[in-house]
Amino acid sequence: MEPIQRVTAPTLDVLDALLSSDGAVWGLLVIKATGRQAGTVYPILERLERQGWIRSSWDDDAERPGPRRRLYEFTVDGAEAARGLVDARRSASDAATRAARAGRPSGRAVTS
């Protein structure tokens, strides 16, 4: 498994969406969960697969109408690495929120 060279917000969103799912998930659900465009999500999924973070397969449900769906799921190492990246983002985001709140005026008038 290759490390991700550049961890972007869209990549973290895709990782988080995959971590939030129970098992394999198709691309459209990742798009809906992240709120990102297909032109952003699918290249990220392809890159994650090339790097060994996820694997994909075609849905073989013959009873389901419509086009076949490509399903994505983490490899064991990919899931562990993704949890680390997403947790680090949450910690940094939480710290930034706390810092912003600490620096924010309370709304009370200051009298001299």
* Span between termini: 62 Å
The fraction of residues in strands falls at: 5-15%
Main β sheet profile: 3 strands, antiparallel
Task: Return residue spans where pLDDT drops below 50 for at least 5 consecutive residues.
Answer: none
Helix content: 40-55%
Radius of gyration: 19 Å
Give the rounded overall mean pLDDT: 89
**Biggest β-sheet: strands ordered side by side in the sheet:** 1-3-2
Order of helices and strands: HEHHEEH
Number of strands: 3
Helix segment tally: 4
The coarse silhouette is elongated
What does this 3D model show about the protein?
This protein has helices at about 10-20, 25-35, 40-50, 75-105, and strands at about 25, 55-60, 70-75. With about 110 residues, it is mostly helical. The longest helix has 28 residues, at about 75-105. The protein has a 3-stranded antiparallel beta sheet with strand order 1-3-2.
